[in-house]
Each structure stands twice: as structure tokens, then as C-alpha cells.
Specification:
There is one protein chain. By secondary structure, the chain is an alpha/beta fold. It contains 15 helices and 18 strands. It has a ten-stranded mixed beta sheet with strand order 3-4-2-1-5-6-7-10-9-8. Helix 3 crosses helix 4 and helix 9 crosses helix 12. The structure holds GDP-alpha-D-glucose (GDG). GDP-alpha-D-glucose binds next to helix 1, helix 12 and helix 13. The site of GDP-alpha-D-glucose (GDG) has 22 residues, from helix 1, helix 12 and helix 13.
Length: about 450
Amino acid sequence: MSRLIAISNRTAVDPNARAGGLAIALWEALNASGGAWAGWSGSICEGDPETQELSDDGVDFILTDLTREEHDGYYHAYANRTLWPLFHYRTDLVSFDHDAFRIYSDVNRRLAEMVTERIAADDVVWVHDYHLLLFARYLREMGWTGRAGFFLHIPFPPPEVFTILPEHREVAEALCAHSVVGFQSERDRANFVRYLVEYCDGVETSDGKVNAFGSTTLIRAYPIGIDPQAFTQASVSEAARAAAHQIGSILNDRQLVIGVDRMDYSKGLPERFAAVGEFYDNYPEMRGRVSVTQIAPPSRSVVAEYRELREELDRLAGRVNGDHGDLDWIPLRYLARAYDRDQLAGLFRIARAGLVTPLRDGMNLVAKEFVMAQNPMDPGVLILSEFAGAAEQLHDALIVNPFDTRRVAEALHTASPCRSKSGWIAGAASRKSSWRATSHGGARPILMICQTRPHRRSVSP
Ligand code: GDG
């Protein structure tokens, strides 16, 4: 029987890692088909890395440790300091290192070897994300001819940016070794197709395929989704109510605006903090009526850029609070730690607005989670960056340019309840608001979209 074989940098071998959107979706698919999941064990080894095989609840795991050199070259250097910034259009942060590329290629080859030794001709291989861009090249070199798909979780940049990568051709050729290549958004798909056509003599066919490098590949957008019912249930769980109660005692009847993001420069946190400052500057009547809470668990904190980001956020939050705070009011609370998913869902549910303003994001699951956590009788407003993949689907959010801090401040004002004396009163607008269902297009079919007043696609001056 044909099995699904997923390959990603990290797997959900640890049951605690089965909570995220990707992990849940993959786990369910593998669990249903009796498939296998291959990747890095999460450990660094001293000697030669060995392969570990184990099974849990019908899913086989094929894991390998990384050597210290592999971890530095493949993971820290090439994946996180070359590909991550480049694919997020941050050419200013990209570092190139030929040794790192060699190690990245070697790790992709080693993982491909580990997998090819264990798969059958009719299995389906499903490769995930920017850590494994070369995986299929080695799979094919080792003689495996079966079906293979690739999904990129992060954005794919325009060809003018992608071609900055010295190895762009090798990467593109390896991607075309898959039968299907999936992207989060139409914009990412179009960028890759344009690159193949303009730089590699690719020929686009009418059925969404591209002939390039001697292969024919289906290239499509498959926007990733969340489990909407599960998130709605989480938002009314005991832990969610407790978190809402806890923050309620500090809010003191003020309206909550919430942001939840991994602490990453792609998420636009400094720009967001600046916009919050402008909001209180430009709309003094909102002072003392709204409190912004930003949850930002640190990620990849060993990399210098992340340490700098942390320091910048500390400084910016201090400034907003120093300028605007009062004895009984903290305008911007910034919590650099992780919370349970149910607690987050509870905070989303009571928030008047969700601030999701990445400078560039593949999809952004927080935007979808915020929507699903809302009470349909009194929903909050989603303020969403036009540069998140989610903006192609969540048309009824307040769509903003995250670099334009004045407009983001304006969106915060639009979303705030006690807008002005002549404006609507707290809650009245949202109670009147309606909901509509829209086709999701991802793994989950329906996502309810919160329609709030005013429901324009962008904020006008
Ligand atoms: C990549 C792409 C793409 C955050 N803080 C906590 C916490 N989270 C959860 C959120 C959400 C997930 O982490 C973050 O997902 P995002 O989609 O927002 O962003 P990335 O981590 O950058 O993910 C992205 C995604 O892959 C999927 O394809 O959408 O574009 O960059 O689920 O809720 N969860 C818990 N505590 C926290 O403090 N429990």
C-alpha cells in the first residue's frame, strides 16, 4: 500500500510539538494513512550521526542527529541567515557563505539517502520548507522515480530578489524535480513561475504546469489553514477563560488590542510599536481607554539580529510607556515569553482588535486563529498586513501597509470602540456586524471571516 512520507527539518516526534497548525495537519494525514515522518531529531551529536527509527500511534519516525558543523552550516548559516532573510525580501540581512551552502547540500543529500533507503516505489514523498530545497535533487540522483511534492511555508521572492542567491539555478532545478510545488499564496506562485519563464526558459502550460529543466511540474498556491473548530473550542476552554479573567483584572474595563508573534524581524514588531506610539500621539482621546498587549516568544535567540531586535523592542516599548503611561495604565505591554495555545485563544476572544502586521509572511496563522477565536455576537477587528499571505484570503480584515505607521495608527483608531463622541459606542458596532463564510482553499475548507465596521479593504486617509 502506498504510504505518505513527510520530510521536514523538525518533526512532531515530541507529542508537545503536535499543537501547531502544520504539525496537526501533518500528524492527522500521516496518522490516517499510516505514513512516516523524517527529519532532524533536534539533537546534536559528537561522533557520526546515526539514524533512529521509532513508531508512535501509527506514524513511523525516521530521525537523524546533526553534527555541530552541520547544525551551524545547514541550519544557522544557510537556512536562517541566507534563505530566511532573502525569501522575506530582506536583502540587507542576507549573508552568503559557500561553505554553508556545501554543508546545506550535504545535509539535504544525507537526509535523502536516509529516506530513499526506506521508501517503496509507490510511496508519496512530501517535502517541507526552505531547509530542504535541494532534497528532491538527491532523491532523483539516487534513482527514486516516484511522486514527490514540495510545500514552501515562507514567501517566494520576486525573481529580481531570488537571483541574488548565487545558487538560484541549482535551487530552482531541484524544486522542479518534484511533481508538484506548492506555495502559500498566488503572489509566491507567480514569482516562481516568472523566474522559471524569464531566467530558465521555462514554458508555462494552460493547466498550471511549467516545463523547465527537462521536467514538468505542477505549480500552485495551496494556502495553509488551521483547524477552525478546534481553535474556536480552545477560545472557550477553561484555560482561555482563566487567561481572559487574569488580563481583565489589569485591563480594568479598557479595550484590549493584541499581537502574538514569534520574535522575528519578519513580523514587523518595531514598526508596530512605532504605530502604537503614533496611535496614542494622534488620538489622545484613546489614552487610558485602550491597552495594547504584544506577546513575542523569543526565537532563534543565538543569532545576532534577534538579540538586536529584542533590544530595539525593549527600547521602543519603554518609550511608548514613558511618553504615554500613567500610574494606573500601561499603554503597551510587551511579554517576551510563550503562553499556552488555549490562553492565547482566550485573549484573542476578548480583544477588540488583533494586530497582525508582518513586513512579509508566507501565510500567518495567527490572523486565522484570531478570527476563529472571536465571539460571533461581538467580534473584534483584525488589522492585517497586506504583505501576509493571509491577506489574499481575509478580505474583510482592515488591510494595512505595515511600513506606513500613520495608517496603522489610523486602523487602530478605526478598530477602537470609543472612537469619538459622534462615533459608535463600545461594542455597538461589533454587535451589528455580520459574518460571512468564504472558501478557504487550504487543507480546511471553510474559514469564517469576521466582518467589522467599517469593512473596507484598506484604510483611507
Ligand atoms: C511559518 C511561516 C506560515 C506564537 N506564539 C505562541 C504560539 N504561537 C503560534 C501561533 C501560530 C504559530 O505559532 C505561528 O505561526 P505563523 O504562521 O504566525 O508564523 P511562523 O511561525 O513564522 O510560521 C508562516 C507558517 O509557517 C505555516 O505554514 O503561516 O508564514 O513563517 O500558530 O499561535 N503558540 C503558543 N504560545 C505562544 O506564545 N502555544
